[in-house]
Every structure is written in structure tokens, then in C-alpha cells.
Amino acid sequence: MEKTTNTQVGYNDQIIHVKLLNVEKNSYFIGDIFKQISQMNVNIDMISQVMLEDEMRIDFTCDLKDQEKLNQAIESIKENHPRIMVYQNRNVAKVMVEDQKMKDEVGVAAQIFEILGKQQIPLLQITTSEISISFVIPKEFMELAVHKIKNIYQL
Known about the structure:
Strand content: 25-35%
CATH superfamily of the largest domain: ACT domain
Mean pLDDT: 92
CATH architecture of the largest domain: 2-Layer Sandwich
Structural class: alpha+beta
Number of helices: 4
Number of strands: 8
Distance between the termini: 12 Å
Shape: elongated
CATH class of the largest domain: Alpha Beta
Order of helices and strands: EEHEEHEEHEEH
Radius of gyration: 17 Å
Helix content: 25-40%
């Protein structure tokens, strides 16, 4: 992607990355999980899923300030869906790259992943849209990732 004044690189190191394993492949089931989270007034940010043969994994992020409410929601989820395994990681950061031109550019994700790969920065979660790519990485790599991405886009 060429340099443009519209490219924005943002970050947030005050998040929780949640991983739900053994999630049943059922829309109603998934809806119930997120309903329980929303009833505790936890605002979910990124959501991604991985379809496995007999089940799925769902990852999402939320604000660190919602930790207590999230814990209450997770207890409720476990009561209603005991087979679900839940993992939380608070030692993470989200980095976002956004530009309207992304929808017409080829290779933006490849370039970002190459930048992160050269620095050996692990990707824990990725979400995209036509104009943005967001990823969760270990918090210790946040400044390096932001710096390298800004350098490549001359920001």
C-alpha cells in the first residue's frame, strides 16, 4: 500500500483475548453464548472463529476494564454449556491498520504479516474488513509492531 495521509495505525494494550474451545457448531448455541456476555454488559470487539471437524473455536476481545463482568458471564456460560473450555489472556495488545484504499489494494495483509514475521511476532487472532486489518499479539511486541508498520507506510 502506498503512503497516504488516510492510513491509520492504532493500538490498544488494555484488552482481554478470550478463547472458547469445544463450541458446538450451532447458531442458537453461539447466540446464547454472546447473549450471556451481553447481558453482563461486556462490549465485545474482535470476533473470529475456526471451524474444526466436530466443533469450533471462537476468539474475541473485550476491554480490560470489563474483567469482572466477563468473569461472571463466563461462569454463566460454563453452567449452561459445561463442555466449553475458556482461556483468557490479558498480556496482549491489538494493533489496527485502516485505510479506505485497502479495498482496492492487493497484498496489504501479506505485507503486514511479512513485517510481523520478520520480527518473529506471533499472531494470536486476526480480523479483517474491506478497509482494515486488526490483530492480537503478545503485549511485549506491540511497540515494535506499530513502529515497523508505521515505517513501512512512512507514517
